Amino acid sequence: MKQIDVAVGVLIDADGRVLLARRPDHLHQGGKLEFPGGKVEAGEALGAALKREFLEEVNVHLTVPDNIKPWLSITHDYGDKQVRLLVVKLADFHGEPHGNEGQEVFWLHFDALKAEEFPAANIEIIERLRTAS
Ligand SMILES: Nc1nc2c([nH]c(=O)n2[C@@H]2O[C@H](COP(=O)(O)OP(=O)(O)OP(=O)(O)O)[C@@H](O)[C@H]2O)c(=O)[nH]1
Ligand SMILES: [Mg+2]
């Protein structure tokens, strides 16, 4: 099965709160929480994909180099879909977050993240956020 590269942004504000969105019910892993992001287009750099997805999905302008390297790279097979999450920690942004696709978007302190509310591939991200911070 073809593996899909997904740019995933963990945007943390000055108070240690992380920007989250709830995946619309009709999408893959619908109803679960997620870090904003999406598929990296052919030939697109990771930082460019993050900037595009954050603006499209949550109305946030990121300052991040196009050639940023992932903090974590996580491969996961959902059975119906195989993904590689390219995860970047982000702090520099402007704009008021808003769910451009009608989805719920909110800030939550990283201590309060519960792995079971996220897609299974995210477990490692949440564990690493707890230990790395
Ligand atoms: N954005 C995002 N996607 C995640 C996370 N964890 C995770 O397993 N994924 C998976 O990554 C895949 C692609 O993400 P996506 O659906 O946001 O892609 P996208 O924005 O380009 O969507 P589209 O192609 O429907 O427009 C989905 O199968 C999704 O379930 C996460 O924390 N954030
Ligand atoms: Mg997306």
TrEMBL record:
GO terms for molecular function: 8-oxo-7,8-dihydrodeoxyguanosine triphosphate pyrophosphatase activity. Residues 1-131 form the Nudix hydrolase domain. The gene is mutT. InterPro entries: Mutator_MutT (IPR003561), MutT-like (IPR047127), MutY_C (IPR029119), NUDIX_hydrolase-like_dom_sf (IPR015797), NUDIX_hydrolase_CS (IPR020084), NUDIX_hydrolase_dom (IPR000086). PANTHER family: 8-OXO-DGTP DIPHOSPHATASE, NUDIX HYDROLASE FAMILY PROTEIN. It is an enzyme of class 3 (hydrolase). The keyword Disulfide bond does not apply. Its EC number is 3.6.1.55. This is 8-oxo-dGTP diphosphatase. Keywords: DNA damage, DNA repair, DNA replication, Hydrolase, Magnesium, Metal-binding, Mutator protein. It holds the Pfam family NUDIX_4. Gene3D superfamilies: Nucleoside Triphosphate Pyrophosphohydrolase. CDD domains: NUDIX_MutT_NudA_like. It catalyses: 8-oxo-GTP + H2O = 8-oxo-GMP + diphosphate + H(+); 8-oxo-dGTP + H2O = 8-oxo-dGMP + diphosphate + H(+). Its cofactor is Mg(2+). NCBIfam families: mutt. Belongs to the Nudix hydrolase family.
